[in-house]
Amino acid sequence: MAANNIVVLGAGVSGLTTAYLLSQDPANKITVLAKHMPGDYDIEYASPWAGANYMPVGKQGSAHHAWERDTWPALKAIAEKYPEAGIHFRGTLIYNRKKDQESATGQWFSELVQPNPWYKDVVPDFKNIPSDQLAPGIDNAQEFTSVCINTPVYLSWLVGQCVKNGAVFKRAVFKHIADAANAHHTGQKADVVINCTGLSSKTLGGVLDGKMYPARGQIVVVRNDPGPMVSASGTDDGEDEALYIMTRAAGGGTILGGSYQKHNWDGTPDMNLANRIMKRAIAIAPSLVKKGQGIEGLDIIRHGVGLRPLREGGPRIEKEKIDGVSVVHNYGHGGFGYQASFGCADTAVSLVKEVLQNKSRAKL
Ligand code: FAD
């Protein structure tokens, strides 16, 4: 059986999940090439900054909905079978205020906070919280069981799975997507390059996707553990500020978020915003600190900023020939790269198979 030489460009959650699925077929000889790898923290590398959890935001009936729906079983299976992957189940509370509907954060979360969302049939233990139990100002709320991913542990686990299946990892930086086809570890030209470069697809030669833009997310990572995860539809501190709390598996600390600042590229934490994030978190989850304490009761590990790779019109998962090289794109996953990772990677893998079938036919 002839081998398929495949290059995956990018080692964030999109590239690693795609490589992980492809590496399960021994006919695929995979090289993962990237400027940044798990272990790095950089403003050009979104994946390590994510919480990350599963809070579906895709509109009912959209491709985004299908990608998130199809990702839950995979994350659930990993959480159950591979505790070393850094994914655990966690109770989740979602609070909605109708007044947040028009804000940037409210629009991002509009599906998540609905009383009757599509994902109620996907996640376990979904239930609406009775209105007489809601705090003043909250219009509706729900709880369910979700997962929280310790992203540094999980990304490294994905690398390990790919390496175990024979994939080769190399550091490399490319100015043009087509050049990646010449960097396969066998020395032969790759049959297909999978573009998982996230926000950098805006500037990568051969791609230059003008629809890409960032939504800046600032976080505070603390050692405190408040219990369940919490997300709210918005805040009173600004329409692009957000409020979410999640404790990562395996000692990864608790993420306090955040912000959703579109077109903001600033990689430096804003300490005023950090104070607001911490105050809001304690107000909604007082169990974060000891009784009577304020933000001085938080034990801070680090402040961080990541750029969510948003794309007007949604992620781009499609095939294209660029300078004679077959390319499959899988980028533009905004704030949902983990919770849609397996659904998106599955779609990308189907396109890779189409490219490889055409290659086989051409040889006959
Ligand atoms: P990236 O992680 O940015 O990876 C891009 C890769 O491409 C890197 O390896 C980079 O080095 C490489 N690359 C780029 N250009 C080149 C080049 N020219 N040459 C070589 N290599 C190149 N999602 C969720 O599902 N749940 C959450 O709870 C969640 N929370 C988030 C919180 C924050 C604060 C942020 C910032 C994001 C969050 N996200 C969450 C979104 C998620 O992090 C992103 O959607 C996801 O990480 C995007 O992954 P990616 O692999 O597409 O891109």
Task: Summarize the structure in words.
By secondary structure, the chain is α/β, with parallel strands linked by helices. The protein is 23% helix and 26% strand. The longest helix has 23 residues. The two termini are 14 Å apart. The model has no long low-confidence stretch (mean pLDDT 97). It binds flavin-adenine dinucleotide.
Q: In what range is the share of β-strand residues?
A: 25-35%
Overall geometric form:
elongated
Largest sheet, in brief, is: 9 strands, mixed
Distance between the termini: 14 Å
Based on the structure given, which CATH architecture is correct?
A: 2-Layer Sandwich
What is the CATH H-level superfamily? Answer: D-Amino Acid Oxidase, subunit A, domain 2
String of helices and strands: EHEHEHEEHEEEEEEEHEEEH
Bound molecules: flavin-adenine dinucleotide
Count of domain modules: 1
Share of helix, binned: 10-25%
| CATH class wording | Alpha Beta
How many DSSP-defined strands? 15
**Total helical elements:** 6
The fold-level CATH name is D-Amino Acid Oxidase, Chain A, domain 2
Radius of gyration: 21 Å
